[in-house]
Write a structure and sequence with these properties.
Elements (H helix, E strand, L loop, with lengths): L4 H16 L2 H27 L16 H15 L3 H18 L2
């Protein structure tokens, strides 16, 4: 079983930074970055759980929900990930998204 603790820690850290960010930062793109990441993480989890099925897109629940959306999507993916190389790629995605979000 793959230890996905680094993934859950990374998404939790990003989510905590989003929750602490001022509304103006969220409006300037941090929430958009978080939603894009959440959608990517959810799509990857769906591809593992339901290979070949068309992915369902995570809805935009608003800028104040973005932190929760990356937490949920990241933890869902952590439950099904089995490939260490994929884990490394996902960790890079989280890090890059957090940098772009500026939080």
């Amino acid at each position: 079983m793959l230890d996905t603790t680094p993934l859950t820690a990374a998404v939790d850290h990003f989510a905590d930074r989003l929750r602490a960010a001022p509304q103006s930062r969220l409006q300037r793109g941090a929430a958009t970055e978080a939603l894009a990441l959440a959608r990517e993480l959810a799509a990857r989890a769906q591809a593992i759980e339901e290979p070949g099925a068309p992915p369902r897109e995570m809805p935009d629940a608003g800028m104040f929900a973005a932190a929760d959306q990356i937490t949920v999507a990241g933890r869902d993916l952590a439950l099904v990930l089995e490939d260490p190389a994929e884990l490394a790629r996902v960790l890079e995605l989280v890090e890059e998204a957090q940098k772009r979000a500026g939080v």
